[in-house]
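User: Can you write out an input/output pair for a complex, sequences first and structure second?

Assistant: Here is one pair. Inputs:
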Amino acid sequence: MNELIPLMVIIPITCALLLNLFHGYSKPVKYLSFVVALILPIIPFLANYGLHFFGGHVPLIDNSLLLNQLPSNISSSIISNFHPGIVYSFNSLSKIFIFFFGIVTFLAIFSYISQNKKVSGAYLFLIFMGVAAIVALILTDDIFNMYIFFEISALTQVGIILASKIKNNYEVALKYLFLGSIGGPMMLMGIGFLLGLVGSVNIADIMLAINSGFVDPLSPLFLLSFGLIFFGWLYSVGLPPFHVIKASVYSKALPSASAIIQGFSVMTFIAIGLIIIRIFSVVKFVNAFIIFFSLAGMILSLVLALSSNDFRKTIGFLAVGEIGYIGLGFGIGTPLSITAGLFQGLNELIISALLFIGFGTILYFVKTSKLSKLGGLISYHPKIALFVLIGGLAMAGVPPLNGFQSKLALVQSALSAGYPELAVIMILLSIITFTVFVNVFHRIYLKPKPLDLEVKPDVVIPRSTVFSILILLIICIILGIIPNIVTTPLFNYVGALI
Amino acid sequence: MIDVQLGALITSGAFIIIGLYAAIFLDNIIKKIIGISFIEEGANLFLIALAYKNGGVVPIFLPGFDANWFAQNSAYPLPHALVLTSIVIGASTLAVMLAITMVIYKKKGSLSATKVLGDSNE
Amino acid sequence: MIEYIIMFIAVLGCILTIVQRDLLKAAILSGITGICVTILFQILLAPDVALTQAIVGSAIVPVFLALAAYKTQRMEDDD
């Protein structure tokens, strides 16, 4: 038993509730949120790997006192291995992802509280609640717990969109919530079918039941539950048919908040995606489904990114498209490719945060976000432009940055798994991504400045924003030069998983 | 004659179909929200119907019960715990949706989804 | 027998709510479904869930809907 594992969820939730109470008092809100945001990335390093049983409910087979009292038809059956309570499992994957997600959270919260004199406790409540939900999604080993935190993260994302004052944010929030409240009950039905088949909502139990022949993996109810859970997953990560609404969500939030929402999507993708792989990968066509939707998401969002005239929207579509690479890694299904997908997810988390915050600096000195009205901004803040360019190169996969390492690993794993066509598609799409990025960069920074563009020349970019961009850039370069510090533990985890 | 469990499952299916119809095809935003609340109710009813045991007892262990008999005759209490959470989530989502609808109505003066939400992607 | 009648009323309440053009009436009609689902929970051996559903489904949700209709507009169509 390790008490620090649930604390990773409990601390942000408690902090969120306290911040809501202190709403209106700027100073305590600032100090509290700063301290907790600083603690978040540290806790994973103090906790030991292992399982945490809530309420001390260990499986019956480990509790000999209780086992002896039960009739033999229960104690000798598969039921005695089931987990009666909620289980959180902490491993090298959760450690790495919670650490990097904690850093992105810290940077977003730090830039929010250092740039605003009056901070809103309610807004920080939403961010911390969302962070707690996402950390719980990564940790949990229980599909009903997953559903609860899936709903909480959807609600907090809606709240974060509402907090920005960008035009039409309410409409996008309502649409996102509509789709979410259709996707949520669908997911609940899927969980209900699994519960009816197995009798437990614990993932380890479901896997045990399938592997021991207790449940037929080809029964129609099992496939139906896959479809319903898959639908909820598509909604929460923004693969088609939800890519348009997800990109709108990114473009309607404040830059630092979009970085965090993108973090939510990537973490949800990995958490629920791994759950889907663990439970359903006995069915062969599941991998084909994941590959199909990932490819569709990448292609559609690249097309829409090319045709969009709002740079926030374009970056949103690029971020949605990049998520498809993780799905390809998951879909190919070998340990190497899943590791590459996870590594790509980690890079995606960092690079997209960098791009959202970096391009967001433009809005400090120009009013519009229309690409056709922008131009020639490189003469105002050339350093930031350079940082953003490096971020874009990392996303497109240029050595020696981290995106190159993960995309190379993805292509290699596709080749070694016998899917050369996927490798070719990945390289092509990566080139198109680079083209789209260079196009946006050119239209914002390099092309001659339009005459009617009003620029406030003496605006200073806040130091905290520059600090955030620099930290993210340093992580990009470190991961690009020594990827082994994360890929080796990830590979060990995936090897134990399959 | 169908038994109670099957009847409840059919009812939950009807809820979900009616709710989906309202949420997708009706134009009024509040009607859409009502449809969504029906979908949620249908999902809850589905889970509770799964837990039902024909001729069983309520899953509360009273003093004097024989443990073996109780284990074989009580309804399954795990879905009940899940539905309790899910009802509360549904109600809070509904409240947030209605609040956003009221703000949008103040700005645009209409409840029609095609008029209000149609061009909001740009 | 009573349970089948209640299931029928629940589905009927759903349909009536959907076709009702007056939003205030629709809100009140959605309470009928809530009450029927409450009784169904009781019949399906879940009295603890029925307690929650009785408050949420038959009081809170209709009141929220009615408040929203009261604050916006009463009829479904704009005119």
